[in-house]
Structure of Nickel import system ATP-binding protein NikD:
Amino acid sequence: MSEPILKVENLKTQFFTEEGTVRAVDGISFEVNEGELVGLVGESGAGKSVATSSIMRLVEDPGEVVGGTVTYKGKKLIDIEEGSDGELRQSSEMLSNEEMRKQIRGREIAIIFQDPMEALNPVFTVGGQLREFIEINRDVSSEQAKEIAIDMLREVGIPEPEKRYDSYPHQFSGGMRQRVIIAMALACEPDLIIADEPTTALDVTVEGQILDLVKELQEKYNTSFVWVTHDLGVVAEICDRVNVMYLGEIIEQADVDDLFHKTRHPYTDALLDSIPRPDQSVDELNPIKGVMPEAINPPSGCRFHTRCPEARTVCKEVRPTYQDVSDPNESSHYVSCVKYENVGYDDAEPLETEATDAFSGGLVEARGDGE
Ligand SMILES: Nc1ncnc2c1ncn2[C@@H]1O[C@H](COP(=O)(O)OP(=O)(O)OP(=O)(O)O)[C@@H](O)[C@H]1O
Ligand code: NI
């Protein structure tokens, strides 16, 4: 197989706050192959957005990428090592801020955010903004840029694009605005698009249409995607491969079908249990019990052990390694869970956690008292 287009290795990003160091992204590794749509999924606060902004080198104070390597088509977007003295060392290969801005962002890697109004200026027409973006990034004349812009609007399913070209963002519906953003992302023919929950604010029907559109465009242009979402339904619909994040770490990675049908990690299991499925009624849904702990002070051992229905005493002590546990029918299937370590999980005592009945019973009672 050819080299992946994007390779993230042991990426770490921290926020230095008054309360302490937030380990928002704590040593994640994953790859994206050409033409592949890779999901990054997890609950709120798992570190998905920090991970994507780290890759694009858009983390702001008090945050900082403190380690890891991100390689995009052989170029080091990030190459940082922490010396034994605690000093961060950037390798000489790591791109400068200017190289990131001029060569990478927009042209090579485009990013789509949840809120299209962040990317669209309300005082300029949609077409004008798209045209200007294309003109700046693609070395074409203003007329050519306008033509490309109209073509792109048509491509993403905006009806009567010549007319809508002169509309302002507020004259578009949420779904239409998101289509414009996709047009903008595609306009410079990037090889990779990073999308951070771009359909979360849309209603389900519109979301479905946008996902169909993305799938179609991805096949046509062979663009690679990193798709951030908290919704496994979205993952099932569009992703080829999935990374599941929990508290700054990727705890499972597999082909989408294997993740759903050969689930290895109890957290992924719990996530799957919490989404509506056609064969389930709403009251059969099982939200994940408990809350994700703070990334300032993550639990010892396996970080999920405080909420894990399968936790045993060893889970509190042993930090699981991220390892390939694929069976012969799978391409690769990574997981970090103590169950797959040779540390006596089977003989260890079960641990009382937020997921076990005794504990959640207590929670309900406590909540009742407080009201
Ligand atoms: N500017 C900041 N200062 C301090 N902590 C931050 C900052 N930005 C993010 N964090 C912390 O980093 C962690 C990861 O946040 P992130 O936004 O990446 O989560 P997420 O998975 O994208 O969640 P969501 O689904 O809600 O978007 C959280 O604990 C968050 O509180
Ligand atoms: Ni986010």
Observations:
- Residues 15, 17, 22, 24, 42, 44-50, 62-63, 230, 295 surround adenosine-5'-triphosphate (ligand 1) (CB under 6 Å).
